[in-house]
Amino acid sequence: MHNFHYANPTQICFGRGEIAAIRTLLPAKARLLLLYGGGSIKRNGVYAQVCEALAGRDWFEFSGIGANPDYDTLMQAVELVRRERIDFLLAVGGGSVLDGAKFVSAAAPFQGDDPWALLADKVPVEGALPLGCVLTLPATGSESNPVAVISRGAAKLSFRSPHLQPRFAVLDPAVTFSLPARQVGNGVVDAFVHILEQYLTYPVQADVQDRLAEGLLLALIDNGPRALSEPDNYPVRANLMWAASLALNGLIGRGVPQDWSTHAIGHQLTALYGLDHAQSLAVVLPSLLREQATAKQEKLCQLGRRVWQLPQQESAALSEACIQHIEAFFQQMGVATCLSDYGLHDACITAVCSNLRHFGLTMLGEHGDLDPDRVARVLARAR
Ligand code: NZQ
Ligand code: ZN
Prior knowledge:
Belongs to the iron-containing alcohol dehydrogenase family. By secondary structure, the protein is α/β, with parallel strands linked by helices. It has 15 helices and eight strands.
């Protein structure tokens, strides 16, 4: 196990009816901005619960933050924050709204010309407005991590800073009953891939991290399909919401090697062709594992034995069987795994590789040996 530092300062309020807790979590005198997306919170009663909790306060609202939150839209929120001297942000939605609010929190006090520099030039975040959130879609872990992913044209970039860590996160599984099946599947696949990107590298005798990761994967495998077949089952929704949060709150990745190449490649497919975030991951991951099957063989075999309960067999065969189980699980969650399922053909391979080169993402993987030529092979295998 490698050395590590770990703290997760986000206060979690988990369970039915917990939206009411924001009344006590928000500072009494705060000038608040509520940020949300395209309106699902008005249809499922979340907006009404938030309004009730905010009764008697000074607050403004900003809506219309779409999937893969867009820089130009977010800059309108930045203007509103500056004009109205907002000093606390409340994000209510999925990963896109939360990430968008994180960008607004850092961009509003930004002193330079254009806050896009925080992403494009990796200018360090010097400070940000405090942010709290109400999560409506279990998937990204954004509710208790310091990362945000923002899109601008063909660029989909991430930035991170301790200043972006939400102060609190309300996780009420009942608000996820209204999710369409597509977003349930997306959420499970995204969380599953987050765990694998912190697990499927090479062994460093980190038994605690491995067992935590395997436990979370099993919880997703048990509960994911049930959320599709029994959409009103509260314990199923609760287990998914907590598993997705723990999948990317910093815990399971401490002290172990990580490989975020599936996300790096997937972001280009989203930026260029509009695939949902999880769809892009479901296309890339199985082929990427086949490309790296030798380097990742020990962990692939461990995953196959411990999680998929596969019988002992020759390592290469066990690795391939493990990858086939992952692929089948994504399909079971309704997320297709081939480029052609999304109407994409060979031309996309060159475009993705040239985007990766443009953004300097040319040494991916836990060994830094996944260059654009190998990425082209990965995508060709995903046809
Ligand atoms: O816009 P609204 O009306 O809210 O509808 C949303 C949106 O259309 C809808 N939705 C959310 N909660 C709902 C609901 N519909 C009905 N009932 C509910 N309870 O779902 C749609 C998708 O929402 P979105 O927020 O885009 O999905 P997700 O949570 O999957 O977030 C994806 C974004 O997060 C980024 C992705 O790249 C992508 O931009 N990620 C952020 C990460 C992070 N901050 O750590 C890590 C991830 O790997 C990921 O990259
Ligand atoms: Zn993700």
